[in-house]
């Protein structure tokens, strides 16, 4: 049986370093807990955005047919004629997006009065499936979730640094937590407490195990998701990570090239068809998960072609090409993705994977599940930590009363 005097002696035996570590872990956790809970929980939900959109928005899906997709000109003509008959006004094509087999094609248009429309069509038949003018309920929901995850539902200029700072604090909490978790002596008893959750224990003991053991097993993954998230908030942090991985200074920003405005004659009558064929021949239709061709709205603007592979959501190895608006000559440009992924150094490849790592989509479903579980554990740590603190400070006092 431990008396208060025994506890004081035991506490006094702790080194100054240990006391500082425990103090930092406790108070930094209490101060930032609510923000970290929201960021982790919304992150867990955000992981599944593409799946929710796919299953709740039926117009994105079509029955696969044993025949090739129709050319863009056919789909553009069908959607354009439909809109002109409906709007009785100006209709300007903004771009066309092809998905993989079983997905509809989207033609986006700018309408009069700063309005826009997204027309979804069957790529095999040109049948119009959906005339979309407003965000869906699922899209609105995930916009809300992202606002919480990135900005804590505050104005961006306030919320972004608040969330980023809380994530930096989270790194300190995780490191101090690992030091606090590490036993002074390793034996059978400490090993069992450190690595196993005693599911049959009373709820207070179970809560401590959930905090300590889950915190240990998720440590590396939580660190990874936190670091990759801070990259989106602070430019100095982004440049530091880039320099650490590549030994180079990150100075390149996307600078799209311009079309030659001295040329007035259009060389090709069906430019979008030609660009679509080029991409299919270059990469293979079966390998392309998402193909977006942006049509220039001004004489100086080029065609922009973006190609994603796999399921169409992976970004790190995507390709971006620019073509002259009149001649379709490929234009050179400067940007973060101007160099193909295969030509990058190892460090540059890792850095380009940052978004896909952070969202868990880097290797598809397995890493999404891992990111989801990691986020849930991250959200649970502030909760179980506060309960531990409360029980140690007031729980035993109430029991004695």
From TrEMBL:
Question: Which keywords accompany this UniProt record?
Answer: Membrane, Transmembrane, Transmembrane helix
Q: Name one Pfam family in it.
A: PepSY_TM
Q: Does the keyword Transmembrane apply?
A: yes
Residues annotated as transmembrane: 21-48, 162-182, 214-237, 369-390
Origin superkingdom: Bacteria
Q: What is this protein called?
A: Putative iron-regulated membrane protein
What is the species of this protein?
Pedobacter psychrotolerans
Q: Species lineage, top-down?
A: Bacteria, Pseudomonadati, Bacteroidota, Sphingobacteriia, Sphingobacteriales
